[in-house]
Specification:
The chain is α+β, with helices and mostly antiparallel strands. The chain has one domain. It has two helices and five strands; from the N terminus they run αβββαββ. It has helices at 2-8, 45-54; strands at 12-15, 28-31, 41-42, 58-61, 74-77. The strands form two sheets. Strands 2-1-3 form a three-stranded antiparallel beta sheet, covered by helices on one side. A two-stranded antiparallel sheet has the order 4-5. Residues 1-22 are annotated as: Disordered.
């Protein structure tokens, strides 16, 4: 579902260079066409999902904007994060 959502918007899995953690990608993001992702490092879907699963993250997203256009909004949430 996550991959289909991202690919429907032309997005590629990326991380922020220098944010790696223990040999794994650090901050997980998507690079959407036309949004200036030149400072991001493309990674494989396999690496993206491995990191996502290891961190036990939740994917929160918006399918459409209020006007019905596709939305690129998403957030990765760690359910174990006690900071609120």
């Amino acid at each position: 579902m996550i991959r289909q959502w991202a690919e429907a918007r032309g997005a590629k899995p990326v991380t922020v260079p220098g944010s790696d953690y223990g040999g794994r990608p650090g901050r997980l993001l998507f690079d959407f066409p036309g949004y200036g992702g030149e400072d991001l490092e493309e990674i494989s879907w396999e690496d993206w999902f491995r990191t996502f699963d290891e961190r036990k993250l939740n994917f929160l997203y918006q399918e459409h904007k209020k006007d019905g256009a596709p939305s690129n909004f998403f957030r990765l949430e760690n359910p174990d994060d006690t900071e609120a």
